[in-house]
Specification:
By secondary structure, the chain is α+β, with helices and mostly antiparallel strands. The chain is built from 4 helices and 10 strands; from the N terminus they run E-E-H-E-E-E-E-H-E-E-H-H-E-E.
C-alpha cells in the first residue's frame, strides 16, 4: 500500500496517536503492518491541520493583545486607497473592534465597500525584532446593544479613556473587522519567519449583528 506523504513512519506505542481507539496510524506487531482506512487517514490529516492552525491563530491573537493600533486600508467609491490608524480591541478569532465616527473617511468607504486590509506591527529599530500581522477580510458596523456596551467598557479600560470620551463613544459607530486571511511575521524567531492562515466565518463564533448591510444606518 502506498502511504500518504508525511505518514511514512511507524509507531509501536498504542497511545502514540490520540486520534485512534487503541491503535496508532501504523504499527508493527505480530499481525504485521496495520494501516487504517483511507477515510480515517484523511480525518487524521484534517485534525492535525486544524490543531496547527488553532495554535497559530492563538499566537496571532496573543500578539494582537500586546499592540494597540491597526492601520486599516479601505477603498473609496472611485477606487482611491485610504489608510487610517485606529485603536482596536482584539477578540477571539483575531477579530478587531473599534469606534469611529460614521462621517470619517474610512467609515464612508466602508459603506461603499466592506472589503478591507489591515496591518498591526510592533515599533522597533532592530530588524531582528520585527513582528507583525497582515490581514484581509471585511468590516461592518455592530448594532447589538449588549455587545456594544461590553466592547465600550473594555475599550475604555484598555486605553484609559475615563469619562472624558464617553460622549464621543456614545455618538460613534462600533465596527468589527473579521479577517479571512492572516499572515504572521516574526523575525525574532528567525529572519523571514512567517505563516499564513485562512479563516472561514463558519469556523468562528457568530457576532450578533456584525454582518449588517453597510449602506443602512446602524
Amino acid at each position: 500500500m502506498i502511504l500518504p506523504p508525511g505518514l511514512h513512519h511507524r509507531r509501536e506505542e498504542s497511545n502514540a496517536f490520540p486520534y485512534w481507539d487503541g491503535k496508532p496510524p501504523f504499527c508493527v506487531g505480530t499481525g504485521g503492518l496495520y494501516c487504517p482506512p483511507a477515510h480515517d487517514i484523511f480525518s487524521i490529516l484534517i485534525a492535525c491541520r486544524m490543531d496547527r492552525n488553532s495554535k497559530r491563530l492563538q499566537r496571532v491573537v496573543d500578539f494582537l493583545e500586546t499592540e494597540t493600533t491597526l492601520a486599516l486600508a479601505t477603498a473609496a467609491e472611485d477606487g482611491s486607497p485610504y489608510v487610517a490608524p485606529l485603536f482596536y480591541l482584539p477578540r477571539e478569532g483575531a477579530r478587531l473592534f473599534w469606534f469611529s465616527s460614521s462621517a470619517s473617511q474610512h467609515s464612508r468607504n466602508l459603506r461603499e465597500n466592506p472589503r478591507v486590509a489591515g496591518t498591526v506591527y510592533g515599533r522597533t529599530g532592530d530588524w531582528k525584532k520585527i513582528r507583525g500581522v497582515q490581514m484581509r477580510g471585511s468590516a461592518s458596523p455592530v448594532s447589538d446593544p449588549a455587545l456594544r456596551r461590553a466592547i465600550a467598557k473594555e475599550y475604555t479600560q484598555r486605553f484609559h479613556l475615563g469619562t472624558l470620551f464617553e460622549a464621543a463613544i456614545s455618538k460613534s459607530t462600533l465596527y468589527c473587522f473579521q479577517p479571512e486571511w492572516v499572515r504572521y511575521i516574526d523575525n525574532s524567531r528567525r529572519f523571514g519567519y512567517q505563516f499564513e492562515i485562512s479563516l472561514a466565518f463558519r469556523e468562528l463564533p457568530p457576532i450578533p449583528n456584525c454582518d449588517q448591510p453597510l449602506n443602512e444606518n446602524s
